[in-house]
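Justification of computing resources. Each target in the renewal requires a structure prediction run like the one illustrated here; the chain below, 245 residues long, is used simply to show the kind of job we budget for.
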Amino acid sequence: MADNIEGKVVVVTGASSGLGEAVARALAKAGAKPVLGARRLDRLLALARDLKLGDQAAVQTDVTKCDQVEALVEHAVRLHGRIDVIINNAGLMAHSPLERRKIEDWDRMIDVNLKGTLYGIAAVLPHMKAQKAGHIINVSSVSGHKVRSGSAVYAATKSGVRAISEALRMEVKAYNIRTTIISPGMVESELVNSITEPDIADAVQKMYEAALPAQSFASMVLFAMNQPDDVDINEILFRPTSQEL
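Resulting structure tokens:
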């Protein structure tokens, strides 16, 4: 059942692979109108063509650039006349102990995970306020709930996404806008590839052998979207059954 999904205009960031690609596929199957953003335009175009969305559904987007996120949203509105949902999915997980001083990695995570989410919110709010309708879905992580050694900055960004989302929830009630935080545990994605320390990457890769398929994340997104308009699913936290942390 996808009664409240069919026909909706949905912007997805980080859509060229992993969780974003899985969501795009699920949305297209459910009859939504996905508009896809990511840095890798070749992969975005291949996905858009595979889903028969047309090249116009793919927009090269670096979420660390506010103007590019705004351009993605404005393109969706020009294309379809409105925007119903944004999924702020783009993210990095460059784990490392703080003592290694991976400052470039820290900056990248803050720029993508935290500021990228803020830029997505900023881009859609004027449209959703005018429509008196919309749904903002922000992707956090189990790490936004539970900090472990080596994940300090990543966990800080994902905790920040949760804090921003909760304030947003309260602020947009007057405009009939729904907000959802989705906090996955280990789910198949390219997140591990963003770890720049080989020993940490190897350890995390071994953990991710028990990861859920990316489709499990897409199912959570569709569940939240498909609720009646007067039901606001504010947070979903899920893990593989075998995941302890």
